[in-house]
């Protein structure tokens, strides 16, 4: 009997090992797969770009309200703006999946790695677009909803399909949708558009070329390999930096014009930040003239990182200035 009981225990333990452990192991595996899928869809939205757009949109609300903005409108601008930007970025990934596979900088994106199918990315992007436009229409006003719709359409159809693959000035004109969150935020708060919103729009619009060209100079071989005629691909580094100087001056001029509506705190910040930005872009341009024939050795990423600091601090100053005015 003891031997028989021992045998039955061995059999039961083997059955338990067969029937229980696979189920236990399946749970962490399913969680891991779910986590991978969620991260892939988040990556489609390009969260760093979404964050950058919200950095300009939220402080604009402070200026529009001349102080603390409505909590509801702020939530709508943050959530609706994130959904709209995520939609445009996901649809951009869907359209650009052929060139993303060629470029090293974009070779880890979800559609290239096949963690998301093209059909799923398309549906996801369209669903985010519909949700974001509907959210603005229901909770704010039709002007904000219309601007949101126009920004998504412009980025997907005008920039991604037409400009990016056919003109070296795609970065400049693509800045329209990059600066649109300022107008959307202002419209959400006021139901109209006015000069402060237009000037802040111009700040971001003229900021984008020197910001992105600094990055594109570093990755110009990627763009050349993919057949994308970015300005750093078809023109000399010296010419790119010359155009960056022009756009930087226009950006600073627009930022100083905002001073009238923001007060001294913003004014001091705009002058100091603008001076630092202009110093760096002029330094690079002078270096390109001295290094004629060996411009490829120029390191432009310092300007790229400075541009991010500039935009963040400038719009922080917009909010602070509105609160203190």
Per-chain topology:
Blueprint: H1 2-19, H2 21-44, H3 47-65, H4 71-95, H5 97-100, H6 110-113, H7 118-139, H8 142-163, H9 170-190, H10 195-218, H11 220-226, H12 231-234, H13 237-257, H14 259-262, H15 264-290, H16 301-324
What does the model show?
With 325 residues, the chain is mainly α. The protein contains 16 helices and no strands. The chain is globular, with a radius of gyration of 25 Å. The protein has a single domain (46-324), classed as Farnesyl Diphosphate Synthase. α9 runs antiparallel to α10 (195-218), α10 (195-218) runs antiparallel to α13 and α10 packs antiparallel against α16 (301-324). The protein starts with a helix and ends with a helix.
Please describe the structure with a list of short key phrases separated by commas or semicolons.
325 residues; mainly alpha; Farnesyl Diphosphate Synthase
């Amino acid at each position: 009997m003891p031997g028989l009981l021992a045998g039955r225990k061995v059999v039961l333990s083997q059955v338990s090992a067969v029937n229980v452990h696979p189920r236990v192991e399946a749970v962490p595996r399913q969680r891991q797969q779910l986590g991978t899928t969620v991260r892939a869809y988040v990556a489609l939205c390009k969260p760093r770009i979404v964050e950058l757009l919200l950095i300009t949109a939220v402080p604009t609300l402070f200026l529009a309200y001349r102080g603390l903005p409505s909590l509801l409108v702020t939530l709508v601008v943050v959530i609706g703006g994130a959904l709209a930007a995520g939609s445009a970025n996901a649809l951009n990934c869907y359209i650009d999946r052929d060139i993303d596979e060629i470029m090293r900088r974009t070779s880890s994106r979800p559609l290239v790695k096949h963690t998301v199918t093209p059909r799923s990315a398309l549906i996801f992007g369209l669903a985010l677009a519909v949700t974001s436009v509907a959210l603005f229409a229901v909770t704010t006003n039709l002007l904000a909803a219309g601007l949101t719709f126009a920004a998504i359409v412009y980025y997907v159809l005008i920039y991604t399909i037409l400009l990016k693959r056919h003109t070296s000035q795609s970065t400049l004109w693509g800045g329209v949708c990059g600066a649109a969150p300022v107008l959307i935020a202002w419209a959400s708060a006021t139901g109209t558009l006015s000069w402060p919103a237009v000037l802040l729009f111009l700040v971001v619009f003229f900021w984008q070329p020197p910001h992105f060209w600094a990055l594109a100079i570093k990755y110009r071989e990627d763009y050349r390999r993919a057949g994308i005629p970015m300005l750093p691909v078809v023109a000399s580094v010296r010419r790119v930096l010359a155009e960056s100087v022009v756009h930087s001056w226009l950006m600073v001029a627009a930022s100083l014009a905002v001073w009238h509506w923001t007060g001294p705190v913003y004014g001091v910040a705009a002058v100091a930040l603008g001076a630092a930005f202009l110093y760096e872009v002029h330094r690079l341009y002078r270096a390109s003239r001295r290094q004629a024939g060996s411009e490829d050795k120029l390191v432009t990423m310092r300007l790229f990182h400075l541009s991010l600091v500039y935009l963040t601090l400038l719009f922080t100053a917009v909010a602070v200035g509105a609160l203190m005015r």
